[in-house]
Structure formats: C-alpha cells, structure tokens
Amino acid sequence: MSQKELSPDDIATIFAALGQSLEEWETIAVWGLIDILNMARDLMHKALIDTIAEKWPMN
Amino acid sequence: MADELTDETVNLPISSLAEALKTRKLSAVELCTSIIELIDTYNPKLNAYVYFDPDYVLEQAKNSDKRISKQHAGPLEGIPIGLKDNIDCAGMPTRAGTIILSDKPINRDAKVVEQLKSMGAIIIGKHNMHELAFGASTINPHYGATKNPWDSTKIAGGSSGGSASAVAARLACAALATDTAGSIRNPAALCGCFGIKPTRGLIPIDGVVPLTKSLCHVGLITRWVEDAQLLFYLLLGNSVKFSYNPKHVLTRFDQVSLLIPTNHFFDPIADSVKLMFDDFVSSLASKGAQVRYAPLPVVEAAYAANLTIMVAEATYIYRNIVQQHADKLGEDVRVNLRTGSLVTAVDLLKAYEIRELVKSAWAEIFREYDFVITPTLPGIAPSIDEPAFAYNKASELISLATVRMLGPYNVAGIPAATIPIGFINGLPVGIQIAAAWGMEMSIFDFTKLIENEGIYNPNITPRI
C-alpha cells in the first residue's frame, strides 16, 4: 500500500496491528509526518540506479 | 589567588589553565570554585545543567591539587568538563533527557569519560538535552527548556543544548556531547561555540545512550578551537585512525581549496545568513583560499537517508519503551518514534545503499577539495515559544532544518565542525566545515586560522 494513500484511520489500524494504541492527536501527528517520509523516499528513489533495469533488458 | 579569579580566567583556553594549574599559579579548587559560582549564578537562568553536585566537584578538585603537588598530574589535571546527560559517569545518573531512565547514579564510566578522568579532568556535571537526543530544540518536557545565553527568550538548540549553553556561558571549559543529525553543530552554532563531530567511531561510543545504531557520533563543544584540538588529540593521540602530518599543518588560507555547494543548503535560508556567509567566503577568497562553487553530489539523497535511518533505527532501539512507556515520553519524541514504524524494509535498505553511494561520491570530492563549506544553520536562534526558522514567506521547523543542513554528513560519517563568524540581531551565526574521513586536524588548523584572523573571538562572552 502506498503511504501517500494512508488516512488517519489506516494509521490507527496499522499501529493496532503492531499492538500500539495511539491517541487521536498522535495518529494525526504521525499522519502529518508521512509527507516527510514520502519526500525522503522520493529523494532516495531518484538517487538509486535500478540495477536490474540497467544490466538486463526488459520485455 | 582566589580574589584574582575573574570570569576572564575561566575563559582562558584549556592549555593556559592547565599550565597555570601545573605551575600552581592557580589551584583546581580555585578554578572549580569560580565555575561553581558561575553555575550557581547563571544556571537558574539558563537551565543548562540537570545534574550538578558542587561537593563532588570540589572533592575531585582537591584530589587534582594533591596530584599536582606530587607531580603526578595528568595533561587535563583539574580541568572542569561537562557531559551531555546521555554519557555515563560513575556516581551520576544518566537520564538522557527522559524520565524513563533511572534517577539513580550509574556505577560505570563511558569509555571516553574513563579516558578524560585518567588524564585528570574533572567531570563537573550533566547537561540538559532534548529527550533521548531525538530533537533539535532542548525544549525538554521533563527538565525544562535550556535558554540561549545570548538571549534567554531563544532556544539553545539541540539536542546538546545544555552543553552549548553551558560552554558559551563559561559554566564548563568544554563539553562532551553527541551528534546523530546535527546535535552538536546545531547548538554550538546557535550559542556561538566551536563544535565538532569527528569521523564516526573515532571517539568511542561505549557508555553512551544510543539514539541510532549507525549514525551517532561523540564529539566536543568548546569556546576555543585549540581546546577541541587538544582534547581530540589527547583522546586519540595514539590512534592510527586519523591522519595528521605535522609537516602539512595549514598555516595560510592560500593552502586550502574550498567547495561551496550551490545546491540543497541554500533553499531555504534567511537572507541575512546568506549575506553573511557570502561575505565570509569572499573574505576567504581575498586571503588566497581557492573557492569553487558547484553542486555537492547526492547530498539530497544523503539527507533523505539520514532521516530514514534515524527514525527507523531509533524506533527499533526504543521499540519496548514506545510500547510500554509511551505516556511518559514528550509529544514530539513519541510521534517521531511512532513514525519510524512506517519506514519499510525496502526504504531502510535503500538508505543503506545510499550511504555507500554517498561515501564513494564524496571520496572523489575530497580528493579535489580540502573542505566543503556551508552555513551551519539557515537562521539565527528561534524563540522558545516558536522553535522554527522564519524566512521571507515561509518557515521551517528547527528539527527538519537541522537534519537538512547537518544530517547528510552523519550518513557519510565524515568529520564536520561549526565555528561562529558573526552575529545577527545579537545572536551568533556559524559556518559548517566538512572534510574527508580522518582529517580532523586539518579542520582544526583551518578554523584556528579563522579564529586568529579575529573573525571569531571567543573572548566575546554573552551578557546573561
């Protein structure tokens, strides 16, 4: 699942699965930080060469 | 002698104090008494110390004086040095800015503290810090905010805010601190100190409460560059891990080549800081430094990798605490530790791969340049009420600005320092100097040149 599509309810569900019960303000705060993680993910993605695509042709 | 002790005496470089102590022009008890008085006067205003026992300090000082009289003095005999509260010192609690760790004294020294004590240094106390070192303001929900000595309505920065505030206010000759994404350089810059995180692993991390497994560095905050150089050399003088050839000491600006990155560090930045930085670089060029402007490769990815590794590794380390004691954590740290759970395995592996990419790219850079120079932070110390840098039409949280400006060098593990170059609205501004792995002595040489030029004068002290 793309984290860009996560809602606060999804966040609460993920953490419940981890055995962590988040207060509402925490859920919203974590949801707000997802943008930062996504930014980091995009920057890392741009910097890395796809080794498979580089070395072997694809159909 | 005690009557002659003044604030100026306390402000002397460590080498001068050590000489005065060894020749018995000054006693360790007199020096420590003077610093204790300064702490008693100013700590209630600054909240730099969270643990301080004057009786313990004076007892250590008496022991130092005895060793000096018997001519058994170590190279740091009688010199008072403070510790960030995530570094173990026997007989003192290690709380790391949180209420989760015990208030009871620890019965062991961190490796680096053991080294300092064996050289005669006096551990004067523990400094306030951002909770678990996971933040950049030292607005601590449990122990209170540390204030900036230059303006007590402003933050001291963080996470080593207590250490920088104490050193700037002359409440310690130097401080040992830690840096995972800028936690030494940020407060040192905001409080007008010299701060350095050496190459990762050079100063041992044993006995330091970790924030991460692969980004934490132990380093130094001092007023004088020569103090950091002396401490570094004494701690690592026998190490083969750093390069120092006394025949290649930098003594002139025309011996250095500088890269000024044109990317990443200047977007965003306060106009006033950018102007001061540009003037500073121009002055270096006019003194003969070879200055080139070009992008620093993969720095954005290094920043992203630092962020990703830090939150993931911290969440891993504190997984039980966040499960069992979340209600005892401050709000920001609690949210940071939750967020790390959302970093995927693929994200983390990408970040580790980027670390190798960065090391390789920057090894090339440092074959061509001695130093990479940037502003340390994009603004001056923000207010305690609103810990964010304000730009023309935007603002940036200090925590994010710190990771952006300073975190990339933690990923690579290269040495990086900050030195003040001036003041804006009465608050210090620093520049960041990064060099290749093991080139700490070159950083010291270069920053001493800056200090000797009078660009930075450690004798200017804050009026608290």
Word description of this protein:
The complex is a heterodimer of chains A (59) and B (464). Chain A contains 3 helices and no strands. By secondary structure, chain A is mainly α. The longest helix of chain A has 24 residues, at 24-47. The model of chain A has no long low-confidence stretch (mean pLDDT 86). In chain B, a hairpin with a 3-residue loop joins strand 4 and strand 5. The longest helix of chain B is centred in the C-terminal third of the chain and has 24 residues, at 345-368. Classes of the chains: A mainly alpha (59), B alpha+beta (464). Chain A binds chain B through residues 3, 11, 14-15, 18-20, 22, 25-26, 29-30, 33-34, 36-37, 39-48, and chain B through 298, 300-301, 303-305, 307-308, 311, 322-323, 326, 331, 334-336, 338-339, 341-343, 347, 350-351, 353-354, 357, 400.
Strand order of the largest sheet of chain B: 1-3-2-8-10-9-16-17-13-11-12
Describe the largest sheet of chain A: none
Low-pLDDT stretches of chain B are 1-5
Mean pLDDT of chain B: 94
What's the story with the biggest beta sheet of chain B? 11 strands, mixed
Class from helix and strand fractions of chain B:
alpha+beta
Question: How many strand units of chain A?
Answer: 0
Low confidence ranges of chain A: none
Taking all residues together, what is the mean pLDDT of chain A? 86
**Chain pair forming the biggest interface:** A-B, 26 and 28 residues
CA radius of gyration of chain A is 16 Å
Strand content of chain B: 15-25%
Q: Beta-sheet strand percentage of chain A?
A: under 5%
Question: What's the topology here?
Answer:
The complex is a heterodimer of chains A (59) and B (464).
Chain A: H1 8-17, H2 24-47, H3 51-55
Chain B: H1 7-10, H2 14-22, H3 28-46, E1 49-51, H4 54-69, E2 80-84, H5 111-118, E3 122-127, E4 139-140, E5 144-145, E6 147-148, E7 151-155, H6 161-168, E8 174-179, H7 185-191, E9 194-197, E10 217-222, H8 225-236, E11 257-261, H9 271-286, E12 290-294, H10 299-317, H11 319-324, H12 331-339, H13 345-368, E13 371-375, E14 388-390, E15 395-397, H14 398-412, E16 416-424, E17 427-434, H15 440-452
Parallel strand pairs in B: 2-3, 2-8, 11-12, 11-13
Antiparallel strand pairs in B: 1-3, 4-5, 6-7, 8-10, 9-10, 9-16, 13-17, 14-15, 16-17
